[in-house]
Amino acid sequence: MLLEKEAFFVDTLLHYLCVNFTHLFSMIQNIRIAVDAIVFGYQNGKLYVLLIQQKFGTSETYWALPGGLVGNDEPLKEAVQRELREETNVEVNYLEQLYTFGDDVYRDTRNRVISVAYFALVDSSKLSIKADTDAEHAQWIEINQIPNLAFDHNKIVQKAIERLKAKLTYQPIGFDLLPKYFLFSELETLYCTILEKEIDRRNFRKKILSFGFVEETDKISVHNTGRPAKFFQFNTKKYNQLLQEGFHFEIKFA
Amino acid sequence: MLLEKEAFFVDTLLHYLCVNFTHLFSMIQNIRIAVDAIVFGYQNGKLYVLLIQQKFGTSETYWALPGGLVGNDEPLKEAVQRELREETNVEVNYLEQLYTFGDDVYRDTRNRVISVAYFALVDSSKLSIKADTDAEHAQWIEINQIPNLAFDHNKIVQKAIERLKAKLTYQPIGFDLLPKYFLFSELETLYCTILEKEIDRRNFRKKILSFGFVEETDKISVHNTGRPAKFFQFNTKKYNQLLQEGFHFEIKFA
Fold this sequence. Notes:
The structure is a homodimer. By secondary structure, chain A is of the alpha+beta class.
């Protein structure tokens, strides 16, 4: 790191340059680039997003999406994985690019920052673990309980929810949010929760099972108060095989 | 602009700072942010993309997508519209964000540049005009004739074509590429061209007309060598009304 004297010297010089050569510095691009992660989790009929607490200045504490500046030699997708790991301790193998936020020039009041937002879905069984170990800095917040976030992060979360709703109907992403073995009723409830409406459960079950990649297992739920229910699982191999054969996943809701 | 003496002074100082404070400068983000535009046009059964000729160094001339660095106080979407206007003289009202390219750290060999790519569709009647006035710098190049482009621009174009193909099946975007009045056979050919396959023309016609937002006009084609054909038009008002009522456009092709 810098010695204090060096830092002072550089600072003085840069200040001199900025004051005396404003016309030159205005020609140089002065925009920072960041990444932000929207990580969704699901449990017991509720959709969660992973947030962190950030401190700005002396007193204001804001909830925000995990994220930060991109390293000079760092691919975007590695930057977002690193920020997630550093700030929340959550490892996500795959994040999908959502959108780049750079139309609002003042979205960060300190500097012009353009943010490339990524989103990911994680298995619900990971939720409880993380809530324990990182509760102080990172927390799973239910989607209906999201407070005012820093910057334009509420807008980013909103965009991610829209994408999630849309994808649910044309990709079998719901399974990414469930544990390996799930009750069919849990899958139905997940769809209802994310789409924010009731679905025709009989048609839904018929349709999903007709695809052939959701399989009944011989595991039986013992927790349920009603009659015993079978656990199901998603067969990734079968799904990929169907995709190769030109299959298009699609579920319509009236 | 800078006086020569000033420029020399700033240059010397910056060089001094870089040499003596490498450890400081490596901590400062040194990434540029650019926008690139993929503008599609369509005419006579062929899909075109708008390209410009760029000079690098002294002798190398490359075709490239129109685009450039974002201004410090410039929203991303304004930057891409400005670049398009400056480099091709083409005005486009709406561009959709495609993807942000920033995983390949060396996509520009001169500096790290992250590019936010946007795509747009323009009415085919605009194609001939532009080919006349800006032929030297900007040109409509047929999709199958695209040469090796600068940077990773071939990859960007490929991504845009994939998005275009996908959107064609769930949004009525084909009409944006056609003039106000078009023959039904032209719409069919457009779908065949973009999807790169034959479609069932009878089913396609039946399906499209069943939506109710493509209307027969009383204009009749006189150019055709076969029997006279009626011109059609897209009714935007009707389409928006249907959207509000919860209508989802969708065309499937076997």
